[in-house]
Amino acid sequence: xxxxxxxxxxxxxxxxxxxxxxxxxxxxxxxxxxxxxxxxxxxxxxxxxxxxxxxxxxxxxxxxxxxxxxxxxxxxxxxxxxxxxxxxxxxxxxxxxxxxxxxxxxxxxxxxxxxxxxxxxxxxxxxxxxxxxxxxxxxxxxxxxxxxxxxxxxxxxxxxxxxxxxxxxxxxxxxxxxxxxxxxxxxxxxxxxxxxxxxxxxxxxxxxxxxxxxxxxxxxxxxxxxxxxxxxxxxxxxxxxxxxxxxxxxxxxxxxxxxxxxxxxxxxxxxxxxxxxxxxxxxxxxxxxxxxxxxxxxxxxxxxxxxxxxxxxxxxxxxxxxxxxxxxxxxxxxxxxxxxxxxxxxxxxxxxxxxxxxxxxxxxxxxxxxxxxxxxxxxxxxxxxxxxxxxxxxxxxxxx
Length: 400
Known about the structure:
Elements: H1 23-42, E1 56-61, E2 63-79, E3 82-86, E4 91-96, E5 103-104, E6 109-113, H2 116-151, H3 157-190, E7 192-194, E8 199-201, E9 211-212, E10 218-223, E11 228-235, H4 236-248, E12 257-261, E13 272-277, E14 287-294, E15 306-323, E16 328-330, E17 333-339, E18 345-349, E19 351-356, E20 359-364, E21 371-375, E22 387-390
């Protein structure tokens, strides 16, 4: 389609004159005419846009399950008995009578430091003691003779006093020699290092032939394995809140069951009980140290290992659980999208509780059987029709 605008020129006489239109104005008029023709139906109308299908989502029914009320913390496993073996006398390591990692009993000989020089010292102190006793016998005899002579006035009293002093010194010499012998015998006994507690012995720091002594540090470590302690800090706020919750249910804080979550996420099969609450609070963290004792017959819990600690209080109760992947958060709080009777997504405000693995407890807002959207949430708006499919497998099973 073409468009032209004719511009009149003035006549030669100048009596009649038509205004000259600018070229740009002519082009604008042409464009408007073309547009008017197009709008009036000169062209073929566009086809209607195809209707988009409803988005696909995955729904999971809210389920009521029996759960334990619990609180989680981070704790450390501690051996009930832990002993660092050290040398108390200096000498060359003569024997090592254990295999690293083995179980030992009280009194088992573990290390032997060369005893020869200490046995010789014992013999020397024994000889010193015998000499001291012999000296005292001599001074005692002289004193008895002097006491007889002084009666007949054949000796002065000052001489008798000197004999008494000599006898007292001889008796003190016996005591001194006896003490030296005891010390030598102790040193000799320290050359044999035995197990003071039952447990498992670790790596040896020194091999046979090395010179060891009090400055050598730990030769090996023994730790008991069954039972074990689990120690963990709890803030004063959490401690008071937990105690109040237990008492509200009619329970006793001393009956709280303690379970351990292992590093691989599994729950340790044996439960324990609290046996100690520290008498002071850490001023830096306002926390109190709690300790539980747990059986460890298979040695799964290892000394100084970090574990999760779960405190279970009161009798198990029924609660609604949903996958945590369904949770949404905005300025008004936590909500989920549910599927109504018309297969439309609707917003439902909820109040959540404790986590249970991949699931979470819903305290308020949902009923058992409500279909909760867990996948495809990003492409759904409240009130929008959706195409729902059930989850192929149960999500977030409750941890046992």
